């Protein structure tokens, strides 16, 4: 007796009224089973008749499809049906794979290609991603840094104002337009209504006597830069999220990657309290004009580092781009902006040197990355 494998068997519906004889009905009534013990008939060779078609269950739910040999070899993958036991020949027509919930036969022809996509996730840049060092007066100061840097809400804000001076990972991201754009996308998608108050609160806690107050008074460079970056979060956020109306790209990305005029990046550092070098002449673009308009508004707040740098930078830009390019008629607190446009003091000169040194250090680092 030959058995068909389950994958090759077919459920055939036979009309009992037509195929059952009265003899079988009589056996059914008596409850008897007769077994034929005689030799099975010899296997018939149908190849000579050219008849190679066997009974198969009709598949009403499959749409007939013709797949050419070239299409099958280039865009299709075929899986053979499981082989049957010896002595039984079966053939089965391939069924085309579709997107519908149909019952498919074991042989499948796929006419679509599902590409394999590898997604590489690059961590976003983070501030103070190198050792904080040990140059602190209070042991509580580095502990406070570790606490706020590990805060998930703080991390989700992607504060570019803190990345500008103190992030090696951000310096590396600036080497790639793609990575820089991804960083700015994340930074600009952060909710300003949540992140801005958070940064202001962290700045207040930073200079508290229980945290880094003594180091701030001692003008510890790391603490001073952290404070400026936290306070300047909002103006830097608004400026770095500006888009070029012509190219559609980020103004900041275009400025920071402009190798023909390094001065294009200087205005962004002025938001951190770093004045531009006196001979700097940024490109007179709409991006620069829009950036200075944003900074003009925040320069009126005496708590912002821009209150110490904006007017000097605006005068320099007007000298190169024409009168009125950057707004000068502003008041810093109760002080008239025009009267405050005098040459920078010694402290201002020190900040100017620091600004130039900062940008030069970034450029030098980028050349080796």
TrEMBL record:
Residues 36-48 have a biased composition (Basic and acidic residues). Residues 87-99 have a biased composition (Polar residues). Residues 123-327 form the DUF7729 domain. Residues 63-86 have a biased composition (Low complexity). Residues 36-99 are annotated as: Disordered. Pfam families: DUF7729. It comes from the Eukaryota. InterPro entries: DUF7729. This is DUF7729 domain-containing protein. It comes from Vermiconidia calcicola.
